[in-house]
Amino acid sequence: MVTERSGRPPGKAAEILSTFTRYVAERGYDATNFSDIAGELGLSKGTIVHHFGTKDRLLAALHEGYMRRRLAEAKLMCERLPTPTERLAGLVSAFVLYQVIDRDATVAFQREFVRLADRDVMAEGRKMRTEYLELVRGVLNDGIEAGEFRDCDVTVQSLLIFGSAQWAWTWFEPDGPVTAEQVGAQLVALVLGGLLVRRARVTGLSDPAGRVARTVRACLAEVADKGTLPEAS
Predict the structure, then answer these.
(1) Relative to the CA of 37, which of 6, 12, 136, 156 has its CA 20 to 30 Å away?
(2) Which residues have CB under 8 Å from 126's CB, separation 6+?
(3) Structural domain includes residue 60
(4) 138 part of a folded domain
(5) Among 107, 26, 79, residue whose Cα is nearest residue 215
(6) Residue 59 domain-assigned (yes or no)
(7) Sign of CA dihedral 217, 9, 3, 121
(8) For residue 182, which of 219, 220, 217, 209 has the smallest C-alpha distance?
(9) In this structure, are 31 and 83 located in the same domain?
């Protein structure tokens, strides 16, 4: 898992958040408790409370950190990929790569996504998710205006894209016979095949060894190297 920092060396807060994230990925939020985290790390439950306050606040920190990384990567991809078509291909392929890069946080985020819906403590995470969604919709609109994508309902299309990736944690096997790059290529082909005015471009855009895929990998690695830990309460 990518460790995040906030201009200070990783310490107890980072260890607590990392362990909590792994437990949520493996067990779910309800089955994750401070006693197990404290026991594994050799801490008191009071130390966890000191850094994060409540379990909800730990979940909020997980969500905020996850979305902060995803936004940074998405913005970097959009800067480095010159056309809306390439940008969308990059964003879509990254959705699957997250199943192996930052896996614990991806599984934890996706399996507990519904908890973002109405809890006040999750407000910042919701805000960043909305920003990410609007970024993707902006790419779709740019593609339509540039004549690269056929005209479509951008709101519905964006939700279909997110929905197709949201449940990957339930079936994708990182050590299975099909790699994340191969699944990502198929998802890119599926999404762009239905959007592109010139469908012949799909093959190059979905190539796991192509320029788009290499750019995505480079952006993810760059953000991982810079990571920042969300502030604990």
Answers:
(1) 6
(2) 116
(3) no
(4) yes
(5) 79
(6) no
(7) negative
(8) 209
(9) no
Reduce the secondary structure of 128-156 to three states and give it as a string: HHHHHHHHHHHHHHHHHHCCCECCCCHHH
| β-bridge partners, 196 | 149
Instruction: Give residue 206's pLDDT band: very low, low, confident or very high (50, 70, 90).
Output: confident
Residues 6+ apart with CB under 8 A from 8: 229
**Is residue 230 a contact partner of residue 68, using CB atoms and an 8 Å limit?**
yes
Counting residues of the chain whose pLDDT is more than 90, the rounded percentage is: 76
Q: Looking at residue 15, which CATH number applies to its domain?
A: 1.10.10.60
Q: Look up tokens 């008191």; give the residue.
A: 44
17 pLDDT tier (thresholds 50, 70, 90): very high
pLDDT 10s digits, 105-151: 999 999 988 776 677 888 898 899 999 999 999 999 999 999 999 99
Among all chains, which residue has been given the structure tokens 């985290």?
37
180-201 pLDDT, tens digit per residue, is: 999 999 999 999 999 999 887 7
Residues 169 and 81 in one domain: yes
Q: How far is 191 from 194, CA to CA, in rounded Å?
A: 6
Domain identity same for 20 and 94:
no
Q: Could you tell me what percentage of the chain is helix, strand and coil, using 3-state DSSP and rounding each to the nearest 5?
A: 70, 0, 25
Domain with 45 in it: 7-53
Examine the domain organization and report whether 13 and 99 are in the same domain: no
Task: Give residues with Cβ within 8 angstroms of 40, minimum separation 6.
Answer: 19
The verdict on 109 and 165 lying in the same domain is: yes
* Overall domain count for the chain: 2
Residue 84 within a domain = yes
